[in-house]
Amino acid sequence: MKTFELHESGVRSYCRSFPVVFKQARGAELITRDGKTYIDFLAGAGTLNYGHNHPVLKQALLEYITHDGLTHGLDMYSEAKERFLETFDRLILKPRNMSYLMQFTGPTGTNAVEAALKLARKVTGRNNVISFTNGFHGCSIGALAATGNQHHRGAAGVPLTDVSRMPYANYFGDKVNTIAMMDKLLEDPSSGVDKPAAVIVEVVQGEGGLNAASAEWVRKLEKLCRKHDMLLIVDDIQAGCGRTGTFFSFEEMGIKPDMITLSKSLSGFGLPFAMVLLRKELDQWAPGEHNGTFRGNNHAFVTAAAALEHFWQDDSFAQSVRAKGKRIADGMHKIVRRYGPDSLFVKGRGMMIGISCPDGDVAAAICRHAFENGLVIETSGAHSEVVKCLCPLVISEEQIDKAMSILDKAFAAVMSSQTREQAG
Ligand SMILES: *Cc1c(COP(=O)(O)O)cnc(C)c1O
């Protein structure tokens, strides 16, 4: 561990929760250099939906490299890009009756968010954007302005402007209609809310604590956008690519976003890759107006196309995700009933679910205990109070059951010491 502590910036974070050196990874497992195996319930914060080193994607990439396929080519036409464009349209957009152009941005999620926000402002000629409480959209300045998290915002060093923060679904409980609240603010010319270019929203808030908006809320949000002439940007960087049991997190809600941002699991292999889907009419970019050396990533084009071919030809993969999501939810509900029916609860949707704990200390203690027993799992939420399951979607039922039993033991140990503390 010395090398890291000596040479690497203090900004490193996840490694602090899991202070071991990993050497290999396969499927839903991480293996340290000492040969210890962990089940991976973090999965690159949702980047490894198809697991580590999926053999089909790996083979596609190896063949591509063996034949000297282009690695980098700015945004020039490559066969790899052509194949991805064609495959994404054929297997994802067309069957869902969706029609979008694809913009490849710099390779991280925040790059896609920056591009979407910039385009929304350019097209509408307005500065302001609505984003939501507990939303997370990335750490570069434009995206950070839309992000809620104070820890991240605090490091900006410049004012984070041109965003109006609105309460997310159920932010004030299920009795307060936050859509009606926004409607009133937007209708009132003297509310002080400048007319927004766009609304950016996560349908399930990943970093914000697995808050899942209802279909009804999301549909009403779309209506609100149409009524007030605001573009609707769905940030599906974490919740997309199958995580909630459909390719897009909003698929069964019947909405038509103006733009969609994708990254994390889009390459399928953990390679950096990000994309904005935009309605044709919005494509008002001049050539190169939004630029970047790493727009598109040919290796990612290859693995992404292979992932689509392998997993998204029909509904069987999505069905398996829904079944596994239910298995995990059942396990979590059991834990809640056993150790804290009054203080714990299950949050989230599909395979993006977790257990909300009384506070961040309890959640951190549970993750520590789980790690000691072979499970890599992290927290999310405003107070880091949610123990969050983001395991690869390809995980086996046996691995799920093993992970749930590790979690069960962790909750047993931590919740009983909690009770003792309260009694004493
Ligand atoms: C992770 C994430 C981002 C930022 O992606 P980076 O690759 O870390 O820049 C943006 N939006 C959402 C919803 C995310 O989960």
TrEMBL record:
Keyword Membrane among UniProt keywords: no
Keywords tagged on the record: Aminotransferase, Pyridoxal phosphate, Transferase
Superkingdom of the organism of origin: Bacteria
Transmembrane segments: none
Recorded GO MF terms: diaminobutyrate-2-oxoglutarate transaminase activity; diaminobutyrate-pyruvate transaminase activity; pyridoxal phosphate binding
GO biological process, one term: ectoine biosynthetic process
Coiled-coil annotated residue ranges, if any: none
Family per record: Belongs to the class-III pyridoxal-phosphate-dependent aminotransferase family.
Protein's name according to its UniProt entry: Diaminobutyrate--2-oxoglutarate transaminase
